[in-house]
UniProtKB/TrEMBL annotation:
Domain CsgH-like: 42-128
Protein's recorded name: CsgH-like domain-containing protein
Signal peptide from the UniProt entry: 1-20
Pfam family, any one: CsgH
Source species of the chain: Roseovarius indicus
Taxonomic lineage: Bacteria, Pseudomonadati, Pseudomonadota, Alphaproteobacteria, Rhodobacterales
């Protein structure tokens, strides 16, 4: 007898698999980790491996004027331990616009970093999850 997983469980499994994929970024490439969509709102975590540094940026775009709050959490794991950078605050994005919600440039390789971006708009939480094919918002 085959077991069917509820849609929520499949979404969690897909997000976990994509998170593992998001850790592998080649030098000089940009990888957009994300893509939460709700009511015309999309978000992404863009990771760029610049050789000896890594740039991680939170982005959001909207089809209509939107205000809310964001939380960007960046974690680095290495043989020396773990470090965490948390950024957050309020944001406003105009219709048809894309804005940056937090940015950090650090030493090391993209493989040693993970990042999560969460938005709260009108009481609804959106968590940007990995999507290998997201090239633009």
């Amino acid at each position: 007898m085959k077991r069917k997983l509820p849609t929520a469980a499949l979404a969690i499994l897909a997000a976990g698999s994509a998170t593992a994929f998001g850790a592998f970024v080649g030098q000089g490439e940009a990888h957009e980790t994300a893509y939460a969509t709700a009511d015309g709102l999309r978000c992404a975590v863009v990771t760029r491996d610049l050789g000896d540094t890594v740039q991680i940026t939170g982005k959001v775009t909207a089809e209509r004027d939107v205000s809310g709050e964001y939380a960007l959490s960046i974690r680095q794991t290495s043989s020396g331990g773990q470090s965490v950078i948390d950024q957050g605050g309020e944001f406003t994005v105009g219709a048809g616009r894309t804005v940056t919600l937090g940015e950090a440039t650090m030493g090391g390789t993209a493989q040693s970093y993970t990042a999560d971006l969460e938005l709260t708009v009108n009481g609804q939480r959106l968590r940007c999850r990995p999507a290998a094919d997201a090239t633009e918002l």
